[in-house]
Amino acid sequence: MTLLAFDWIFLIEKLVLIVIIISVSLVIAMYETYAERKVAAWIQDRVGPDRAGPWGILQPLADGGKLFFKEEIIPNSSNKFLFVLGPCLAMLTAMMTCAVVPWSSKLELFGRSIDMQIADINIGILYVFGVVSMGVYGIMIGGWASNNKFSLMAALRGASQVISYELAMGLSLIALLMLTGSLSLKTIVEQQQAGLWNIAYQPLGFLLFFVCALAECNRAPFDLPEAESELNMGYHQEYSSMKLGFYLFSEYINMFISSAIMATLFFGGYDVPFLDESKLAVNVAAIVGLVALMLKIFFFIFLFMWVRWTLPRFRYDQLMRVGWKNMIPLALANMIITAAVVLLIKK
């Protein structure tokens, strides 16, 4: 392909889409902190933040400003390069996972058909697993570079937790892939548009995936790497200013993307039940699909928060026992049963 033949408009479209998705992800992550406090207050019969702006809606901006203007402290005994690299890597891997999520059907603008997905690759789920597995390096590097025994212990917990629950998560998705026959997230959504959502075929697979997502995002009751009562804030104990902000933001971005992937894989993605999108105008269908996907995502984010403020934290031995003795056997059984059903149907 020559330089003149290269589609520069396509490149500009993708760059604009990347900027929009990253900006929206950051804004949603910022207001997830506000929603977390309000949900906790509702569950505990309190008011929650109500000082910064009407109903406290400016509280995330106040918190962000506080982190931004705080003194930046790097311990003298730390590995300074890795100390800075840890939160950057956590934030980078959190943002990279949004690249393969189909946010809606195509838009038609200025005579061009714009795909509402950064990259439609036929190994989308493998890409997500690859990037998510790299996210633990941000925790490990930050905990080790701090030269603090509590941070290191929390980082080791985080690494073992991710390894344990990624196995069950992967096995739960193998059963889903047997039914769909594709690793492309967009293809999976289109198949659900033509029939039933995958939650109807894989309820146990979804339950396993959701529990593993809680563990992957370090959310209660699996927040052992951040066990404040045991490990003094965990792996980011020595961090301050925006380095701490990056770690906190990456957790909320992971919640947002995990919710988007669950909605895409099991709940039809941007599909609206009982609505024939082909009867709508192209742009109207795209907007309706985007709104439907965001509503599903917000429901799962609320579910993440509800679980956190309802269930107590596991002990470390309980966490490992649930992962290895409960989740993996259940995922294997679900995979074997699904394989048997698929074989019977083909016969």
From TrEMBL:
It comes from the Bacteria. Its EC number is 7.1.1.-. Keywords: Cell membrane, Membrane, NAD, Oxidoreductase, Quinone, Translocase, Transmembrane, Transmembrane helix, Ubiquinone. One of its GO terms (molecular function) is NADH dehydrogenase (quinone) (non-electrogenic) activity. It is a multi-pass membrane protein. Pfam families: NADHdh. Its main location: membrane. It is found in: Cell membrane; Membrane. It catalyses: a quinone + NADH + 5 H(+)(in) = a quinol + NAD(+) + 4 H(+)(out). Belongs to the complex I subunit 1 family. NDH-1 is composed of 14 different subunits. Subunits NuoA, H, J, K, L, M, N constitute the membrane sector of the complex. This is NADH-quinone oxidoreductase subunit H.
